[in-house]
Design goal:
alpha/beta, four-stranded antiparallel beta sheet, 10 strands, globular
Amino acid sequence: MSDTAMLSVKEIDLFYGAAQALRGVTLQATRGEVTCILGRNGVGKTSLLRAITGHQAIAGGSISLEGKALDGMKPHDRASRGIAYVPQGREIFPLLTVRENLETGYAVLPSGKRSVPDDVFELFPVLGDMMHRRGGDLSGGQQQQLAIGRAMVMQPSLLVLDEPTEGIQPSIIKDIGRAIQYLRDKGTMAIVLVEQYFDFAQELADKFIVLDRGEVVASGDRKKLLESDVRQHLTV
């Protein structure tokens, strides 16, 4: 595994009008590792992901992928560079079939690479069984599996996941955890995961950063970061 960061976020600031959502946030994400962002609701976790994926402009600092600056690039251009985003709420297309939803991932791929990888169906067999069902007919957990499968179709170098366990039944949470482990262990991508549940994050993460009021208040490797230090920033 390379020590070179796939994603480098340096000292970024982000505002919504006059309100500052991020203050000098820095993080790195490395291929073959899960970097987990933890914190209470409203501390800037989703804002950080929106900055990385180009959905919200930053006011200061820099974001680069494989050493190349992303500043000013639109979300589609970042997706073409290898960033796949699974947002909170999944945002699948409810009127398209499962097959059509997966194929929307083709948009960022050259014509010769447009296929659904076999491991999508190995990780999420239900998708293979429901290829002709509309996305809106799937349960919330199945829609989350579909959203992750669509991101896998994009063959990303950086996978960004915003609270993939939110509102999901326990059996599917386990499936999603196994999928994240599998994708990490393949070693082809860096994974950035926003999560509120410490136990789920602790099982998966190689590195943590903890946000509070838009700032990084703790960070480190899983082995070095004390659970007590993290949990004090997660309790309401």
